[in-house]
């Protein structure tokens, strides 16, 4: 029988953002493009409005936030990875986890992309903040699967931005500092572009720092002034809060181009009218700016680099339009800012590039050619080889051990922060005492040697043969894949167990199938 012809698959890149989400693809000539949504917008607000069995995602949902706040879900990215016990929203009597809600946003992007391109879209690369942990990455991957995608990879947002920036600069060896401040998360990452290879050197961040924190400063200030004047808190009413939040966002945007703005807020038949200057706003948010500055300094120290070794600053995320942000990064670095990529679109474009690289690499493995030759040429270096992207771990992965005196527990690092991924590490440890019946393995994530200061990822117990002396070997294998998702195996005397990584109550395969069926009953538009 003849070998079947390869089937061409359409892959996209998705920037699943806290406030806005973006989807991009690579055309038949190898050029990356943003795919507009059904409302002809390049950015889709990450807001969901539940209306019976309908989930309206985007601008219409955002516009109805004040009128129907109880039906609205926003900023869900900040909750992803928690599982239903840590976060859920109930609609029509059913609780939805953050990853299920995120799946509805991704599904909206998928539907609009298929309508725009006139073909099925099967595969996706989805981006996450570089500092996302194992649970958050796993939940993001699950969200893509729930939306109906074959998720090729989950990649770091700064890596994607560097791909978008560096695609046409592969012949220029350079080191790029990516400053990514979005609506809800913040990352700084140092990337090296060299010999058609884009590699991640160091990364740090705060996945609960973003534009919303600047907005909340304005919201809380106005609410305090309202309370002082009228003795009532306007934040206790959901509609009032949504209205005030929208006014705060508008004020922040206005202050990026104007020296002052006026905020008027009405609640319970009373109102306040307040003037806010750019200087006052910057003063009130200076602690947030200091957080950003400190994280920039930390990542430079972790990389062991000086600012003179950085060739370009790449700004991504909508908050990098704020003058104070640009001024701060300019002052600390004195490095030229690259202005040839859009802060809002670079991450999605880079994800689309990574998606097509994944399909091309798969063609090479299978010995097939389905994508146009022009596409392969666009994503190959001068040597004819495909562009290579290398990431590193952003968190240390360890195991909890007892010290020799069995007095105190400590964390032994198995895979250290800044290790090139994929990574695999094996190590053998001795039992803590003689005649142990079971060996208990506790897997943690974090930089501390104190177990309570790290995040517990999973626990495994393996039965041991009788009468073993103290120090009998138990072997651990840590495998960290390209998505920075961990698998741990325990081997002892012919028995092998896999550690069930808890991932904050992440869905099992059976739960995933059930959730997929449930979400298919919701009409997304």
Walkthrough of the structure:
With 525 residues, this protein is of the alpha+beta class. It has three domains: 11-170 and 341-386 and 513-520, 2-Layer Sandwich (Nucleotidyltransferase, domain 5), CATH 3.30.420; 211-284, Alpha-Beta Complex (Actin, Chain A, domain 4), CATH 3.90.640; 397-501, Substrate Binding Domain Of DNAk, Chain A, domain 1 (Sandwich), CATH 2.60.34. Helix content is 31%, strand content 31%. The chain has 13 helices and 30 strands. The strands form seven sheets. It has a seven-stranded mixed sheet. Strands 1, 2, 3, 4, 10 and 11 form a six-stranded mixed sheet that branches. A hairpin with a 4-residue loop joins strand 1 (11-15) and strand 2 (20-26). The longest helix is centred in the last third of the chain and has 21 residues, at 346-366. The two termini are 45 Å apart. Mean pLDDT is 90; it is low at 1-7.
In short:
Helix content is 31%, strand content 31%. It contains 13 helices and 30 strands.
CATH topology tier name of the largest domain:
Nucleotidyltransferase, domain 5
Percent of residues in β-strands: 25-35%
**Terminal residue distance:** 45 Å
Q: Which CATH top level class of the largest domain fits?
A: Alpha Beta
* Unreliable parts: 1-7
The rounded Rg comes to: 25 Å
**Largest pleated sheet:** 7 strands, mixed
Shape: globular
The number of domains is 3
**In the CATH classification, which architecture of the largest domain applies?**
2-Layer Sandwich
Classified in CATH, the superfamily of the largest domain is ATPase, nucleotide binding domain
Nearest-integer average pLDDT:
90
Instruction: Name the helicity range.
Output: 25-40%
The number of E-state strands comes to: 30
Work out the oligomeric state of the chains in this entry: single chain
Kindly report the spatial arrangement of strands forming the biggest sheet.
Answer: 18-17-12-13-14-19-22
Which structural class do the helices and strands define?
alpha+beta
What is the number of helices? 13
């Amino acid at each position: 029988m003849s070998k079947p012809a390869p089937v061409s698959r359409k892959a996209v890149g998705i920037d699943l953002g806290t406030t806005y989400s973006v989807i991009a693809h690579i055309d038949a000539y190898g050029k990356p493009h943003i795919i507009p949504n059904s409302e002809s917008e390049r950015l889709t607000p990450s807001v969901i409005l539940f209306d019976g069995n309908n989930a309206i995602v985007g601008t219409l949902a955002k516009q109805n936030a004040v009128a129907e706040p109880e039906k609205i879900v926003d900023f869900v990215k900040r909750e992803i990875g928690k599982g239903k016990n840590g976060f859920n929203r109930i609609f029509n009597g059913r609780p939805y986890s953050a990853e299920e809600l995120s799946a509805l946003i991704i599904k909206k992007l998928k539907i609009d992309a298929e309508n725009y391109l006139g073909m099925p879209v099967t595969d996706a690369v989805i981006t996450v903040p570089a500092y996302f942990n194992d649970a958050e990455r796993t939940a993001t991957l699950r969200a893509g699967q729930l939306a109906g995608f074959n998720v090729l990879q989950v990649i770091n947002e700064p890596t994607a931005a560097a791909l978008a920036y560096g695609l046409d600069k592969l012949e220029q060896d350079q080191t790029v500092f990516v400053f990514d401040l979005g609506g809800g998360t913040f990352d700084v990452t140092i990337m090296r572009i060299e010999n058609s290879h884009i590699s991640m050197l160091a990364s740090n961040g705060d996945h609960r720092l973003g534009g919303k924190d600047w907005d909340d400063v304005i919201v809380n200030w106005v609410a305090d002034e309202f309370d002082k004047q009228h003795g009532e808190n306007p934040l206790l009413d959901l509609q009032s809060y949504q209205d005030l939040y929208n006014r705060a966002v508008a004020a922040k945007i206005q202050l990026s181009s104007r020296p002052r703005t006026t905020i008027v807020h009405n609640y319970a038949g009373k109102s306040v009218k307040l003037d806010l200057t750019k200087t006052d706003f910057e003063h009130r948010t200076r602690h947030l700016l200091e957080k950003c500055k400190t994280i920039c300094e930390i990542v430079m120290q972790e990389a062991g680099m000086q600012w003179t070794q950085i060739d370009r600053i790449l700004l991504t995320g909508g908050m990098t339009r704020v003058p104070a942000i640009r001024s701060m990064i300019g002052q600390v670095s004195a490095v030229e800012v690259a202005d040839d990529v859009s802060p809002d679109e670079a991450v999605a474009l880079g994800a689309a590039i990574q998606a097509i690289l994944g399909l091309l690499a798969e063609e090479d493995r299978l010995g097939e050619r389905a994508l146009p030759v022009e596409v392969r040429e666009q994503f190959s270096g001068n040597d004819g080889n495909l562009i290579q992207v290398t990431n590193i771990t952003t968190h240390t992965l360890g195991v909890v051990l007892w010290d020799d005196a069995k007095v105190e527990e400590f964390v032994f690092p198995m895979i250290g922060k800044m290790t090139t991924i994929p990574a695999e590490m094996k190590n053998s440890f001795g039992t803590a005492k003689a005649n142990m019946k079971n060996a208990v393995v506790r897997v943690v994530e974090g930089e501390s040697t104190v177990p309570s200061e790290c995040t517990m990822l999973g626990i495994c117990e393996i039965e041991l043969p009788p009468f073993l002396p103290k120090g009998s070997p138990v072997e651990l294998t840590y495998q960290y894949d390209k998505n920075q998702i961990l698998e741990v195996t325990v081997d002892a005397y012919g028995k092998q167990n896999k550690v069930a990584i808890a991932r904050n109550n992440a869905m099992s395969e059976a739960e995933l199938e059930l959730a997929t069926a449930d979400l298919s009953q919701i009409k997304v538009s």
